[in-house]
Amino acid sequence: MRSLLLALFVVQLHAVLLPGPPGPYSVSNQVHSLTDTSRQDPYAPSNNTHNRRIMVSTFVPVSKCQDCQSTQLPYMPPKSTAAWGQYAAQMGLPTNIVEDFQVEYCQTSKPAPKKYPVAIFSPGLTSSRLVYTVQARALASLGYVVITVDHPYDGFFVEFPDGTSVQGVVPFSPTDAEADAATEVRAADVSFLVNVLQGSAPGASLPAELIESSDLNKIFAYGHSMGGATAAEAALLDNRVLGGLDLDGRPWAKSAKTGSDRPFVIVGSEANDALWAPYYQRFTGPKMQVSIKGSTHLSFFDLPYLFGVRPLPAEYDEVLEQLGGTIKGARLQEIALAFIQGFAELVLNGKTEPLRGLNTTFPEVLVGEEDLSG
Ligand SMILES: *[C@@H]1O[C@H](CO)[C@@H](O)[C@H](O)[C@H]1NC(C)=O
Ligand SMILES: *[C@@H]1O[C@H](CO)[C@@H](O)[C@H](O)[C@H]1NC(C)=O
């Protein structure tokens, strides 16, 4: 048995091409660093002050009629892969868990033949946009321009295209004041990104074809954990962000204190179900709160999905179940994606049926509260 496991482990070292995304579109991908000249970075060390800089990945739908270049890219750039290896080791997992995964894109530098709604994603506190790549590409394949954001000094490791990197300074377990402050910085990062999309951020730009492919009247935000709080906060503070979908995060900052009248949906893990009630009550717009049976907080990362594609040896089963719950990674991805799409239908088109139907489609979905008519 032991030798079989070892043999499996050797096989794991070979590159694995991840399955293609579920939707009708191929997806084109780019990464960009964007500097906000209107803000000093509040986290920068005092002997090295600088403007706030964020990293983004863009995922743009590519239709069958468009020319594009099929390209396989590594799941993460090299320094991030090493940093996540260290992180995995702390959780009792092998250090090479995110190595050698390839993601297929169809790259194009031409604008799409139509404009797509824009979904802005914010990751969990201290985490990285990179571990939500499978979800972002899947959403783009359904016809959304998806932009995932890294918040430097909050993410434990943010790698820039010039090879430099920023280590996190926000603690894994922040005080309430630190969590409020982080949420405010993150929401300002989201508003800055919207400025860039609108061409109103001096000195910062994204490629013209990306802007031409984006419907800037149809922007919403989603995020995991503190990224979900960020989505709610950005929707509250910036009326260009039409709503915030929260994957297993409690609100922080202003939206936690005053609530919000913007559309708000919480898709929580089973473990956190009791956490939402006091915050949920303060939201007065169309809203819904559900939990997913068998899920944990970490289920919403790509990692459980990756382990489904390239299984770890059975000796890791127990730790994986503790971390990611009993639900399969691919199933969680499918459910989360259906909620993001349903939320988009609510926010952009005023349709409530797609969200209402999801507990019938997915028996794992438990509806806690629901008031989608607002
Ligand atoms: C800033 O100070 C820290 C700690 O004293 C030091 O390690 C670092 O090299 C300094 N950075 C610069 C840009 O001077
Ligand atoms: C789905 O949720 C609604 C409440 O929003 C509830 O009335 C209905 O019974 C649920 N359906 C299933 C199949 O659980």
UniProtKB/TrEMBL annotation:
Q: Which EC numbers characterise this protein's activity in its record?
A: 3.1.1.47
InterPro entries cross-referenced by the UniProt entry: AB_hydrolase_fold (IPR029058)
**Gene3D superfamilies documented for this protein:** alpha/beta hydrolase
Give positions of region: Disordered: 28-49
Q: Name a single GO biological process.
A: lipid catabolic process
- What does the UniProt keyword field contain? Hydrolase, Lipid degradation, Lipid metabolism, Signal
User: Where do the coiled-coil regions begin and end?
Assistant: none
Top-level enzyme category:
hydrolase
Q: Give the signal peptide range.
A: 1-15
Q: Where is the composition biased (Polar residues)?
A: 28-37
Task: Read off the Pfam families from this record.
Answer: PAF-AH_p_II (PF03403)
Q: Known SUPFAM superfamilies for this protein?
A: alpha/beta-Hydrolases (SSF53474)
Q: Which GO terms describe its molecular function?
A: 1-alkyl-2-acetylglycerophosphocholine esterase activity
Q: What is this protein called?
A: 1-alkyl-2-acetylglycerophosphocholine esterase
